[in-house]
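Exercise: predict the structure of this protein bound to zinc ion.
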Amino acid sequence: MECVFCKIIKKELPSQILFENDKVMVFKDIDPKADVHFLIIPKEHIESLNHLNQENNQLISSLISMSDRISKEIVEAKNGYKLIFNVGQGGGQIVKHLHLHFLAGKIKRCP
Ligand code: 5GP
Ligand code: ZN
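Solution:
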């Protein structure tokens, strides 16, 4: 069965996209845990932070640097935000496609 985020990247599943380029995509979480909850993902399917290698580990800085851009565009994030990587089952990772949670405003629960 294909990865849900890969389906979103291919537009086989609908999502509310804030930004995308050839490497990175930013879209709204379907079940927001805060006033503002985006997912920042690489377009390449990589399972988690623990599955990076020397060729693709620079993707992490591309994901993190998206947060500066989001904070300038989204009013609730201008004052600050929270970034979370869940890694593996013990870290609460459900979707096995590397993603960075971007949260701002009132946080309801930890993603
Ligand atoms: P995880 O627990 O793996 O770190 O977080 C996965 C996140 O993906 C969850 O916050 C969940 O709400 C979100 N999510 C799961 N399926 C979909 C989907 O089909 N569309 C969107 N936009 N978000 C999803
Ligand atoms: Zn994937």
